[in-house]
Amino acid sequence: MAACLLALFAFVGGETVARLVLGLGDPPLYLADPKIEYLNKPGHYHRFGHNIHINAWSMRSPDFPEKKASSNELRILVIGDSVVNGGARIDDSQTATAQLASSLAKATGRPVVVANISAGSWGPQNQLEYLKRFGTFDADAAIVVWSSHDAWDVPGFGPFGVDLPTEKPMLALDELVRRYALAKLFPPPSESPPHTQQDVDQGIASAKELLQLLRSKRIPVAVVIHKTQTELKGKDLEGDKLLAAVAESADDAVFQTEAVLRPAVEKGESVFFDDIHPNPSGNALLADLYLKIVTKLLAGSESGAAPSKTS
What we know:
- By secondary structure, this protein is α/β, with parallel strands linked by helices.
- It is about 40% helix and about 15% strand.
- It contains 10 helices and 9 strands.
- A hairpin with a 3-residue loop joins β1 (about 30-35) and β2 (about 35-40).
- α3 crosses α10 (about 280-305), α4 (about 125-135) runs parallel beside α6 and α6 (about 195-215) packs parallel to α8 (about 240-250).
- The radius of gyration is 20 Å and the shape is globular.
């Protein structure tokens, strides 16, 4: 009897620690989709002490209607993958898009909506299908954030892994074991599976179509190439050049996160969680970059002149 009570107390204590201390048991959820592949499930989540809100449009953004409330309202799309989304390791308020919205509102004195259109591991085809489904929300400008691997990142439409949960776990301890402990014991291969030329062709074609769609709506657009720490140290993955060429061939402006992240890294500042994902400090630097980009896009739109192609 004593052993049973001890086991029960240990179980309850472990579950409590897993939920309240580790922040497990309430993962952001995903919805399978036959075209987009998957997207964020709308809802409020509390993860690792952070608030994560997914609005009705499956964006990590505050709620807003499909159409502008007034012509004075300013709307910006920021499109990408987990780099834009921010993930569960940062709070909604720490995302670059939330900081951009706040800075832009202060700078312009106008009501601002910044639409964070993203999900982990989304490539150009996922992003394109999202815009085809939901539209462009009366946007005044758009920023598309790509990394080298996005040049060949195409949907697989296979079974979801543990990193794309579709329902809450019954127990936080179950999530601890399945999603984290087993991953530590049996880590996935460190090298990504090789991509094919067909993957590259498909990825680049989707990137071109995505930019064409935005331009067809008369939305000024800029492409931001996000460099990983590995790339900042000198390894060239080539995909960034392919994606930049897609934008430049259509006279869209191209910017590099390297411009704001490299100086910080060289100073010894911590701006990444891992090889690719910016931490809160990194997101603050990206927010500053996005603000400069949006300012150029809006100024070019008002004057009828395109912003410079590279920066």
